[in-house]
Specification:
With 340 residues, the chain is of the alpha/beta class. It has 2 domains: 3-172, Aldehyde Dehydrogenase, Chain A, domain 1; 175-313, Aldehyde Dehydrogenase, Chain A, domain 2. The protein is 41% helix and 16% strand. The chain is built from 12 helices and 12 strands. The chain has helices at 3-18, 23-36, 42-56, 59-66, 94-102, 116-129, 153-162, 186-197, 219-224, 235-251, 284-292, 331-338; strands at residues 80-84, 106-110, 135-137, 146-150, 168-171, 175-179, 207-213, 256-257, 262-265, 275-281, 298-303, 312-313. It has a 7-stranded mixed beta sheet with strand order 8-9-10-7-6-11-12, sandwiched between helices. The chain has a 5-stranded parallel beta sheet with strand order 3-2-1-4-5, with helices on both faces. Helix 1 (3-18) crosses helix 6, helix 2 (23-36) packs across helix 3 (42-56) and helix 2 packs antiparallel against helix 6. The protein is globular.
């Protein structure tokens, strides 16, 4: 396939996802995906698909994205690139698939057991639009010539050993943090509430840690996010909340609680579902030092109006663009320069 044909195929997929005439089909996709994975509510599936269509598959976004890379109009060499996909939020593996195909290679996709149907549906629709689109679904990746794998710190060690002789990107655990400075408004907190609760906090771009000034008052934050209390209606989320709260109560751990979200002081970046860790800072220099210590573990930083360097505004963590690569590793540069 030519580069132009690949672009048009993905644009057509985006149009399919946005077309109101396909609403019934997308609702069916969402219902089946939810049946497969209870965390994938129909609302979240729809939200994820529309984000893909609007942020990834607009022709101007695609053209601007690929322009800096040396992608030939007609691919002369196509490598088989294995993609081990995550399944923590709906269709989270789509960006890697898009990168591999747009760079001129064949995507050999190993789907997550937690997100099989939705990714299969997207791939089937792409192959209906463009039968020659180079995507293969596989259970084993023995024949691939390069690899992109997303997993935990534990699985990363296995991937790094198994694929040590092939060009690879191996991703580990990442999480996102919010920096508060005491100047936040009710609207800021409402936006931050979305960053925390979207996809039930399961994504690496969900906020799991606060950095706050010494003696920070959390009451205005809790007052502002009351509207997110419906998250408690999800039985799996409720089970996590009940368990974590009981652990803190039994162990006498100081914490704040509003009935669906717990805040407790902890140095770790990764908090359990329904819990936000926080850490205090006394100065901007101390805050910067704390952040720099965890650069390789932070996916995204959020702050009021993006005042902190290299951060995004509250409410924007779940709106990555095509160039917001996981782990900060330029996937397209890897595919166009290292996979030969």
């Amino acid at each position: 396939m030519t580069l132009e044909a690949r672009i048009q195929a993905f644009v057509a997929l985006g149009n399919f996802l946005k077309d109101p005439q396909n609403a019934a089909t997308l609702e069916q996709w969402a219902d089946i995906a939810h049946h497969q994975n209870n965390w994938f509510t129909p609302h979240h599936v729809a939200q994820s698909l529309q984000a893909i269509a609007n942020n990834f598959l607009e022709i101007n976004h695609l053209q601007k994205w690929i322009n800096p890379y040396a992608i030939p109009a007609q691919a002369s060499v196509s490598r088989k690139v294995g993609v081990v996909m995550a399944g923590n939020i709906p269709a989270v593996g789509f960006h890697d698939l898009l990168c591999v195909v747009m760079s001129g290679h064949t995507c050999v996709a190993k789907l997550s057991s937690q997100d099989t149907f939705l990714m299969q549906a997207l791939i089937r629709q792409l192959q209906t639009i463009a039968p020659a689109i180079p995507i293969v679904i596989a259970e084993q990746l023995k024949e691939v010539e390069a690899i992109i794998a997303t997993g935990s710190d534990n699985t990363a060690r296995y991937f790094e050993y198994y694929f040590k002789n092939k060009p690879h990107i191996i991703r580990k655990n990442r999480s996102s943090v919010a920096i508060l400075n005491g100047q936040e408004s009710e609207q800021d907190f409402q936006a931050l509430g979305y960053d925390i609760t979207a996809y039930y906090g399961l994504g690496c771009r969900n906020i799991s840690k606060f950095y706050v000034p010494v003696g920070y008052n959390f009451s205005p934050f809790y007052d502002a996010i009351e509207s997110y209390g419906d998250i408690f209606l999800h039985h799996k989320y409720k089970n996590n909340y009940d368990y974590n709260k009981s652990i803190y109560l039994v162990n006498g751990v100081k914490h704040y609680d509003n009935g669906f979200l717990v805040l407790t002081q902890h140095e770790s970046l990764v908090s359990p579902i329904s819990v936000i860790f926080y850490e205090e800072y006394a100065s901007l220099a101390e805050l910067t030092s704390k952040i720099e210590q965890h650069t390789d573990k932070i996916q995204c930083i959020a702050s009021k109006d993006a005042w902190f360097e290299a951060s995004v505004a509250f409410g924007k963590t779940q709106e990555p663009s095509l160039t917001d690569y996981a782990d900060g590793i330029d996937t397209m540069r890897f595919l166009t320069e290292e996979v030969k």
